[in-house]
Amino acid sequence: MSLYDRLETVRRATSAAPTTSPTARVEQAPRRTDPFATVKASVHQALLDSLGPQLYDPNLEQAELDQRVRQTLQHVIDAEQTPLSNADRTRIAQEVSDEILGHGPLEPFLRDNDVTEVMVNGAANVFVERGGRIYRVDAAFTSEAHLRRTIDKIVGRIGRRVDEASPLVDARLPDGSRVNAVIPPIALDGSMLTVRKFAADPFTDRDLIAFGTLTEQVADFLRACVLGRRNILISGGTGSGKTTTLNVLSSYLPEDERIVTIEDAAELQLRQQHVLRMEARPANIEGRGQIAIRDLVRNALRMRPDRIIVGEVRDGAALDMLQAMNTGHDGSITTVHANSPRDSLSRLETMVLMGGIELPVRAIRDQVASAIDLVIQQARLKDGTRRIVQICEVEGMEGDVITLQDLFTFDYKAGRDEHGRFLGELVSTGLRPKFLDQLSDVGIQLPQSMFVRPFR
After folding, report:
1. Which residue has the higher pLDDT, 317 or 252?
2. Backbone angles phi, psi at 261, to 5 degrees
3. Domain boundary at 166, 200, 234, which?
4. Which of 172, 200, 228 is at the close of a domain?
5. I need a surface site. Which of 144, 151, 266, 400 has the fewest CB within 10 A?
6. By the 8 A CB rule, do 406 and 431 touch?
């Protein structure tokens, strides 16, 4: 028998054999049917008939609408002829209320503080992230149309749209949670919805220290850098915790400063009194009316800001941001997607070129080197935790190369515990930042012990 014949025999035997992997069993499992689907549909329709236009009255306060819906819902369920236990009545009332007032089957997970991300891969597949790990949950939309209605409700609330002409959309929930939706024909197996939840009560540096994201020593150093008006770039991959760190750093900003925030979808949670928030706007159905991040950065320069906080730079806005940092708006903070501090500076360079302005590479690097003082690198480690793994100072230029100096690095050599969690933390490299004298000039003194390399 030839090699081809032997391989073909193995392929046929493999394809004919039943699949026994846990993943395959999940995919082949029959879809769970809801025994109360008919009752819920009847209650839902009766509720719509009873309240009618009140559900969409813009002059009605949300709290008052919630109260009316729940009161009417209780009367409708009490009038339902189908025999139901008290537990079933409570469940039906909650699910119909979630559908009317919230986001249907996603609402229990949006209320769950342990869930950090909700992912919908088509109407029948819902996954959540807990503790940095992804789990499939026993929840589903009744149909693709049901899922699309939920997506339309989310994006319509902030004046955005999603349809076949514009099948990709970024939006946000009222609490600031980030939402991304993709619908057919781009999504081949049904609409996809991703919700990255934000804590109702923003995390503080104490929380990040408890999580192991940073240490108390590093928190003191970063607070000094913010108060000392150092320009900071937070770098990391998707879901690495960049925005959370940006929120924490923003909490160090003084109350007497005028702060302008610029975001694609508003999610920053600043508590200062003098905060001006701006959000980019996509084009309308005619392809007009787009307001890009770059437009907002330019406009922010005319608003007499003390600080400019950009949620993320991803295009030609990088050039305007660098110029702002270099023309008196020091102490600004932004984030960028990159795998390392060196990569983050290269990405800024590339994004400046995306702005369509032909500048020599050396001139761009000079701008980057003089604008950025500190790069904070975030990562989501294999154990699911989000950590700051590197803090670098941008020293300047040597020839045509931007020079970086590591100030703190994550100690991977500390190993892991019995649960696979990393035991390491950020430790000093023993090098002192060059801008310590500038911090001292504005009255910020840092102890020398902060930059002593630990002996191991």
Report:
1. 252
2. -110, 140
3. 200
4. 200
5. 400
6. yes
Please state the domain count of the chain: 3
Residue 391 lies in a domain: yes
335: containing domain: 205-451
Residue pLDDT, tens place only, 283-309: 777 778 888 888 998 899 889 999 999
Same domain assignment for residues 359 and 434: yes
Distance CA 454, CA 452 (A): 6
Same domain membership, residue 437 and residue 307: yes
Q: Is residue 29 part of a domain?
A: no
Measured between its terminal Cα atoms, the distance across the chain in Å is: 62
**Rounded CA gap, 34 and 99, in Å?**
15
pLDDT tens for 126-137 read 999 988 889 999
Count helices and strands (H / E) in the chain. Answer: 15, 15
Q: Are 311 and 263 in contact (CB under 8 A)?
A: yes
DSSP secondary structure, 215-269, as one string? -HHHHHHHHHHHHTT--EEEEE-TTSSHHHHHHHHHTTS-TTS-EEEEESS----
Helix axes 361-371, 317-326, angle to 10 degrees: 50
CA gap 47, 157 in Å, rounded: 22
